[in-house]
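User: I'm putting together a teaching handout on how sequence relates to shape, and I'd like one worked example. Could you take Chlororespiratory reduction 2 from Pelargonium australe, show the sequence you're using, and then write out its predicted structure as tokens right after it?

Assistant: Happy to. First the sequence, then the structure tokens directly below it.
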Amino acid sequence: APQIIKPPSSPTRRLFSTSASSPKPPLCSLSSNPSTLSNKNQLIQYLCKQGNLKQALQVLSQEPNPTQRTYELLILSCIDRNSLSDGLRVHRHLSDDGSDQDPFLATKLINMYSELDSINDARKVFDKIRQRTIFVWNAIFRALTLAGEGLEVLGLYRQMNRTEIQSDRFTYTFVLKACVASEASTELLKKVKEIHAHILRNGFESQVHIMTTLVDVYSWFWCVGYAASVFDKMPVRNVVSWSAMIACYANNGKPFEALELFREMMLETNDSFPNSVTMVSVLQACAALAALEQGKVLHGFILRRRLDSILPVISALVTMYGRCGKLELGQRVFDQTKEKDVVLWNSLISSYGIHGFGNNAIQLFKEMIDNGVSPSHVSFGSVLGACSHAGLVEEGKMLFESMVKEHGMYPTAHHYACMVDLLGRANRLDEATKIVEEMRIEPGPLVWGALLGSCRIHCNVELAERACRRLFELEPTNAGNYVLLADIYAQADMWREVKRLKKLLKDRGLQKVPGRSWIEIERKLHSFMSVDEFNPHYEQLHALLFKLSTEMKEKGYVPRTDVVLYKLDDEEKERIVLGHSEKLAVAFGLINSSHGEPIRVTKNLRLCEDCHTFAKLISKFAEREILIRDVNRYHHFQNGACSCGDYW
């Protein structure tokens, strides 16, 4: 699994401000000498500030009237010491003298229990207090959201709206984040839209923090259009707003738009330079498009802005170079980094994996452990994926077994899918099926999809039908599953079944994802669709491809027209195959790049068998190095051979 930056998901503690949502009482000045302190309140406060919580608690038992400030510092000290037992002790004192009914202190207690991962105690504080100010409501919203109890937050929010308490800017931020603290659903998206309407009705649309959060949340629900609409209407934008929208595009399959918005940001903003978060998303967009030259420009910008010491940026750079086909540059960035975290190791392991260098990926995995870095679930996903691409079945099985035995980690659906893919590609379908049947968790779309993909490689109709029965239930709107099964039927000459599936697709209003490829020439990205007759370069490119195809036929090339799922004559099938997007992109590269310069193409789907054969022959007869990255891996064509060894 390639290392990518996750889309906006469940909120993290750093996104919340504990102090911003509650008022501060005036600070009292204290003497630096405890012997001169006139009362025990001042002594307790002094001890708290000195980090001596235990002694402060001893003095507390002798003070009949602790002040609000005293209790506040005691609560903050419990957080600093990460001591739940001391926090409970302070809470008991508050309850004994009735101070737990002070809204300010109740807010502090809720925040304390949230920080100490005791959400039940936080909820008890909220339930007991009679005077609930907006600060108390915000505190419990924040605490429950951090604990992943988003639905409970939304229930409480409805309850608050039935009172006279008015939401403030922190309320909207917390309840929006609550919508992404649970698994995405249509009902939750509906709730986001309701909150959005509430924000507009109450005149908060000028609050940049709220609107930026809204962009993040819409992005998490894959509602790119809604996010863009919110962003476009923002009267004021800061670097966080720009970064959120760029990330929205990058994380939702719109890398072109991400790069375009970044260029717009650089032109429009004078006082807000891109930060590390911005650069991670932009590098991710370059990686998605294999835009090497633009990636190099960004690398230079990162060096000038001194962002090259920030680990997420370094990891994104390694991933970008790996996905742009310059593995050696990614390795260089990795080697120059002194402190390496697991994410950086994963980036390089994944890069070697998608290039088919399975043994290198395994060696890196072992080096990571030897360097004292514990593998994560992503680490195992990356190294198992590398084994799959390289056909290292036994090594993959040993690594999979080591998850539980050596590292105490239970496999997720992704790891099971990797194993099914590993065994399936190697035509060990019985073992792959056994993995599915013996899973300790319910097989999901990832696992059944991996089994279906293996069936396509080896044309196993019976097992493919079994996988699709489950996939059609789990993913009824995923056209790709129908297309894969139709492809398998076509390989088996079961054209009646192909026709039935096509009708099923049409009846359900589903459409196959069209093949699309990209190539970067002189820092400009060019996009091609399969049989793209509206492309202004189509006639020129098709003429070149026809000429090359004719010449290669004389030397033994036979077009693989069986990849066309239509009952047409061979000539029409050849025309369709010749118009595949990756062929058009390669032809464009041959015309517009210098001889000796590698041609780098990215495709959004799996490379078909005919395009694979065609690229091998082109690399030989045109004496050009061709790199094509499909949805699964890199294919490095040179002198008539491919780095995958025809195993993909």
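A couple of points you could highlight for students: Residues 534-642 form one domain. The first strand starts at residue 516 and ends at 521.
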